[in-house]
Amino acid sequence: MDGALLVAQLMAAADRENAIGMQKYMRDQFAFLGVKTPERKAISKPFFKVARRDPHADWSFISMCWALPQREFQYVAADYLRQVSHLLGLADLPRIKTLVESKSWWDTVDALHRTVGDIVRKDAQAKDVMLAWAEDSNFWTRRIAIDHQLHFREDTDTELFEQILVKNLPGTEFGDEFFIQKAIGWSLREYSKTNPSWVAAFLDKHSAAALTRREASKYL
Fold first, then answer.
1. For the chain, first and last CA: distance in Å?
2. Are the C-beta atoms of 115 and 81 separated by less than 8 Å?
3. Gene3D superfamilies from the entry (predicted)?
């Protein structure tokens, strides 16, 4: 895949007016080109079609995107990782963790949890990594651990799920952090669509934050 050409095409599609609104939405934390999601994905699509046939993930492209100042490039890197998740394995988790902990905000962090989940599905050893991430000194890394099974449905490892959540409830290091409470509620809400009795039992058993309970109980 010609990553440099993809970057050039995205830069050529920049829209100053869009960029102002997008930057404001993200609380002026990041610069933007002004390329909205549908256009970004349309530009990336032919490049990713080629990338899926590559023998390995192009981490130099990912690093280049993460280093660029405009936020769309981090989105493209996360999109790319989703497209080549079949090429990723246990050894790639430390690199993904570096992305999680760099230029961190909910948008890029939440764009990476499915990729992490794909790795966990393929390699049971990655479950131990998730347990370690659940106690990490960076709460965004903990958020990934909490949400990596978000779309597993009936394949959810409930023992692992509970262990991770308990490490992040009120009274733990980041138990009062909004983005942690929200992540726990979000993950429980999604799993309640598959196993509402398990979620109800979890809420009865543990002292979850009010925000978490509100989110988790939506479909109960």
1. 46
2. yes
3. ARM repeat domains, Hypothetical protein (EF3068)
CATH architecture entry for 90-219: Alpha Horseshoe (1.25)
Task: Evaluate whether 115 touches 88 at the Cβ level (below 8 Å).
Answer: yes
User: In whole numbers, what is the pLDDT of the chain averaged over residues?
Assistant: 97
Q: What is the pTM of this model?
A: 0.94
CB 148 within 8 A of CB 117: yes
Model pLDDT, residue 80: 98
Average pLDDT over residues 190-207: 98
Beta-bridge mates of residue 70? 31
* pLDDT given for residue 168 in this prediction: 98
DSSP track, 32-76: -----HHHHHHHHHHHHHHHTTSSS--HHHHHHHHHSSBHHHHHH
Backbone angles phi, psi at 70, to 5 degrees: -80, 135
Confidence (pLDDT) at 131? 98
Which DSSP helix (H) or strand (E) runs through 24?
A: helix 16-25
Domain boundaries, the chain: 1-87, 90-219
CATH number of 1-87: 1.25.10.90
What's 169's DSSP letter? Answer: S
